[in-house]
Amino acid sequence: MWHLYICSGDPIFLEQFWMQNEAYSSVLIPGWHRMSYRYVDYTLMSTELEYYIRKLHSIVGNAVTEGRYMVFGVGSSQLLTAALYALSSENSSSPSNVLATIPYYPMYKSQTVLFNSENFDFRGDTNSWQSNTSTNNLDVIEFVTSPNNPDGELKKPIIGGKTIYDHAYFWPHFTPIPGPSDRDLMIFTLSKLTGHAGVRFGWAIIKDKDVYEKFLNYIMVADLGISKDTQLRVLKLLKVAIKDDGKPLFQLAYNLMRERWDRLTSVLSKSTRFSVQQRHPLHCNFFNETRLPSPAYAWIKCEKEEDDDCGAMLEEGKIISRSGSFFSAKDRYSRLSLIKSQDDFELLIQRFTELVSLENDSIETM
Amino acid sequence: MWHLYICSGDPIFLEQFWMQNEAYSSVLIPGWHRMSYRYVDYTLMSTELEYYIRKLHSIVGNAVTEGRYMVFGVGSSQLLTAALYALSSENSSSPSNVLATIPYYPMYKSQTVLFNSENFDFRGDTNSWQSNTSTNNLDVIEFVTSPNNPDGELKKPIIGGKTIYDHAYFWPHFTPIPGPSDRDLMIFTLSKLTGHAGVRFGWAIIKDKDVYEKFLNYIMVADLGISKDTQLRVLKLLKVAIKDDGKPLFQLAYNLMRERWDRLTSVLSKSTRFSVQQRHPLHCNFFNETRLPSPAYAWIKCEKEEDDDCGAMLEEGKIISRSGSFFSAKDRYSRLSLIKSQDDFELLIQRFTELVSLENDSIETM
Asked: What superkingdom heads the lineage (chains A, B) (predicted)?
């Protein structure tokens, strides 16, 4: 029996939707199309695409975009760093302190380390920072991931300095949308919205004009703008996404995620060894009803004291997950991706069922 | 009479070729295509595209690719910075010194300044560095741009430390190809090869395995790889580019550039006020004959002592060029782009002819 890699966040779960909508979602790009660095209005970003992104947010009700600026980037990945450059004070004698709350997405750290900039330093967890620091007057930039990757929680800032809201998962298929996010700097990505990770497209919504201009300058100097083919494709995909006020896409995506959670929690209900994060119902303005969240990831905890490497426990059942330490948490936790293909999910349930039945067998034979 | 902006390096000159080849060069991308971050072989880069790039270099004879590694990036822009990260020593207590030779492409400096990394510092011109530095044992990374932007010269390293060869313009339409470049780190871009600047695609050819791995890690952490749509489109374009051993594309592109140079030098031959860089014939292995270079840019010099702002002189004729200081050179020089559309070029010749005739009128009236 081979290993099932359910560790990465590759969002293949919506492939089925795009196959059903092939007739509307394909793009044809002629060889002579968009050869220039810039559009005719001399911008690097398609104003039509920007219009559709604003329309999408207004339909979903997950972000305030009126009177805000927008910048496109190579996935949300590039925008995370661009945001650090835009928010850190270049004239300061000491670098800005970059923080996140454990468990956090490891790219915040690995990017900050890679760039090794004099403008900012990664300082790790907000909670240990708070307890070690007497003054709150220091220059802090905090990543707030809401819903959080890996545990799906709707996070709030801990420190209260400058914040970067990573809203990659703030869509109705993963979480009830209690209302539009109204933050100074919000980052979204196509990957977890439509499932097109390979397209590499994200956008930032920015309140402050100076921050916007530094942001734009970063994208300009780093890459001379982002691919026009990508922008054309994203435009086509978003036109499909907002059809019938987004109902077909989000209803299908939500049903799929809810079914996966129902099946996973049903298996886990028979286990005393493994547990999963608590989910709390919230009113979703988009679906206009109270619902449980159905996060992209299951954050599994191994409950027995001796099982302090939960990833290794899952690997016994040939399930390769992403260990807690990857997110600067304890290895008693491990992340399972629920946004992979249906085949991968079926296999996950099958193997988890076997793992749990072994657990019950061993109880019976005790 | 409005101003003619002939300052940017936007390469629209080959639009005509791609319109003629529309039937072969269009791509259709279905909505469900390449949703994953990775290809089935788990790489971020299309191996088929890599195969075609190697094939292209072997046809053109401009770069050794056997036994070398390849990394794709968001234009050559992103690869310039990736190269600095890959070559600078992260464990060193002092940053690597980044140098280029005046006149140089300003992105080398603006990127280094933007990233403000502890790994490297931009130190400006190789020649002033040489005269100010007693020891050559310092950690130096030198950008060697060949042919050079702005002046089209085939440059060689001045310092002789670690080098990044920027070969954006090393194609048979801009310069005779004396033989394959065989350097440790070479960067190419689609922009000046096929004219698709908006696609944002470049590649690096790398000799050393460690450098390659650091390079790949940079692209992975900064952006989680590059757009799959872009890779698909580039594949289609390169298949057209190498048709009939590249003869249709490079013959058309060369004829176009040679005609532009012939017409420009014909106008300039009547001027004592403006001159342009010397061009020296070389044997081109690709076309198998000795030819003059036909660079992407004309590097105009104002010859009169009082005309120390050549960009301002050109602006009198409603021609907006890019001033020498943009390239850290004197403003006695200014760069004109010869790779813009045919309409722009026709207008350039018309306005230059008027400027030169004014010059001759004023001589006659003296």
From this structure: Eukaryota
